[in-house]
Design goal:
binds S-adenosylmethionine, EC 2.1.1.6, elongated, Rossmann fold, transferase, about 20% strand, 2 domains, alpha/beta, transmembrane helix, 12 helices, SAM-dependent_MTases_sf, seven-stranded mixed β-sheet
Length: about 280
């Protein structure tokens, strides 16, 4: 009797050891898959990278943490960047996106192309379509000459609220006008609302199906002058075929592609710089 209950206890404890080992092994496998194997595998495919980072991981972390990706990005800025130092804000966001969570900023690699185009154009008036958390806004605004103005448009109020704080943390609030609303409604109001005659530089980085209609709207509203530069992000991934077709074949533009990679991945993407010829 006593031996029988000893045997039962031994069997039970063995089962517990198997069960706990299986749980531990499963958790370790999931951890390796989530942190290493899947991120490494999706580095080379735009479709899988966007599905993994922008849909699966974002929704999972939102549910687990009860916060949004922009809020987590803002916390990383507040924790790691120095107030009034735009470069430290850019570095904090890039570090967060490379090591913690991917996000749809233009990123460091294409960001340095953006920097060189902004520096070359040295705009007095600049327009950004698609602010998100304000990463590219900070990149552009920190390079603007004194007295110049950057207007950035964002139609998602939650993103705009985070961007306002990121721009403020970088100390660039006096150079940036963040306007909430859809580009298609706001572009025709630029002259009335802000007294802008034309833009020297326009960064297109909002939803890809709006690039072409908004470029045409800028022309129709006479917001481009001879020499104005349009710089369009993500022309390969996710891609903007109608815009590229138009801008590369129109006699009104001189256009050039800058090859790079989708932010924080190894997937090909690039920027299209197009000079308006009048
Ligand atoms: C790729 S993100 C912008 C990233 C940002 N430029 C950066 O590099 O940090 C695109 C943003 O455009 C906004 N957006 C998309 N279509 C828009 C539109 N028609 N008008 C205003 N904002 C728009 C989205 O809500 C999103 O925040």
């Amino acid at each position: 009797m006593f031996r029988k209950s000893l045997n039962t206890a031994a069997t039970e404890s063995r089962m517990w050891v198997y069960f706990l080992s299986a749980c531990g092994g499963g958790a370790a496998l999931l951890y390796v898959l989530y942190s290493w194997l899947i991120p490494a595998a999706v580095q080379y495919s735009g479709w899988w990278a966007l599905l993994w980072h922008d849909v699966i991981v974002e929704r999972m972390l939102d549910a687990l943490t009860g916060s949004t990706r922009p809020q987590r990005l803002l916390r990383a800025v507040q924790k790691n960047a120095t107030q009034g130092d735009p470069q430290s804000v850019i570095n904090a966001i890039d570090h967060f996106c490379r090591h913690k969570e991917w996000a749809m900023n233009v990123g460091d690699e294409k960001g340095s192309i953006l920097d060189s185009v902004v520096s070359e154009v040295n705009p007095s008036t600049a327009l950004e379509l698609g602010t998100y958390c304000g990463y590219s806004t900070v990149r552009i605004a920190r390079l603007l000459p004194p007295g110049s103005q950057l207007i950035t448009l964002e139609f998602n109020p939650a993103y705009a609220a985070v961007a306002k704080q990121v721009i403020g943390w970088a100390g660039l609030q006096d150079k940036v006008q963040l306007v909430e609303g859809p580009s298609g409604d706001l572009i025709p109001q630029m002259k009335d609302l802000f007294g802008v005659q034309s833009f020297d530089f326009v960064f297109l980085d909002h939803w890809k199906d709006r690039y072409l209609p908004d470029a045409k709207l800028l022309e129709e509203c006479s917001l481009l002058r001879k020499g104005s530069v349009l710089l369009a992000d993500n022309v390969i991934c996710p891609g903007t075929p109608e815009y590229l077709e138009y801008i590369r074949n129109s006699p009104r533009y001189e256009s050039r592609y800058f090859k790079s990679h989708l932010e924080y991945t190894k997937v090909e993407d690039g920027l299209e710089k197009s000079v308006f010829l009048g």
